[in-house]
Amino acid sequence: MSESPVTPATKANRTFLVVVDETEEMKVALRYASRRAKATGGRVALLYVIDPSEFEHFMGVRDIMREEKRQEAEETLKNLADVVAGDAGQIPVVYLREGNRRDELLEVLDEEPGISILVLGAGTGPEGPGPLISHLIGKAAGRVHVPITIVPGNLTQEQLDAVT
């Protein structure tokens, strides 16, 4: 009785996950992921996590704030999906979650076996690469089961084009 071998993801089914935030380095990571997806026949996935701690008010106010944040998240994802469609040639997979960004990212990676690569943009300031990268290469390193590509947040479009 022979076991069937585990087959790695082929280039055609690679999914590059980008965690959405408002930073410039996220935009660089998104362009990198889009270019790599186009070059390999893969696709891009976007994860937007709404922080629930922003809703610590009276219930009515909290519900209004939650709805406003969700609408804002959906608008951001729509705009980024348009960018990805232009760069990668196809509409991305979209995940919209509410919770702690670190926890939700790890959950998506656990729940979605089609995600092949996590692409993150590194901050270039004196505070370091960013809290998510620091967490993932530190305490959570053993929980991440996909390769992580860390893109320097200060790359120009020309530099990105040269490496993708």
Would you mind describing this structure in some detail?
- The protein is α/β, with parallel strands linked by helices and 164 residues long.
- The protein has one domain (12-159): HUPs (Rossmann fold, 3-Layer(aba) Sandwich).
- It contains five helices and five strands.
- The protein has helices at residues 24-40, 59-88, 101-111, 131-137, 157-163, and strands at residues 15-20, 43-50, 93-98, 117-122, 148-152.
- It has a five-stranded parallel beta sheet, with helices on both faces.
- β2, α2 (59-88) and β3 (93-98) form a beta-alpha-beta unit.
- α1 (24-40) crosses α2.
- It is globular.
Q: What is the β-strand count?
A: 5
* Total DSSP helices: 5
Q: Strand arrangement, largest sheet? A: 3-2-1-4-5
Task: Write out the CATH superfamily name.
Answer: HUPs
User: In sequence order, what are the helices and strands, one letter per element?
Assistant: EHEHEHEHEH
Tally of discrete structural domains: 1
Question: What portion of the residues fall into strands of 2 or more residues?
Answer: 15-25%
Proportion in helices: 40-55%
* Overall radius of gyration: 17 Å
Instruction: Label the overall shape.
Output: globular
CATH level 3 topology: Rossmann fold
Low-confidence stretches: 1-7
Q: What is the overall pLDDT average? A: 88
Key structural traits:
single chain; 164 residues; Rossmann fold; 5 helices; alpha/beta; 5-stranded parallel beta sheet; disordered N terminus; 44% helix
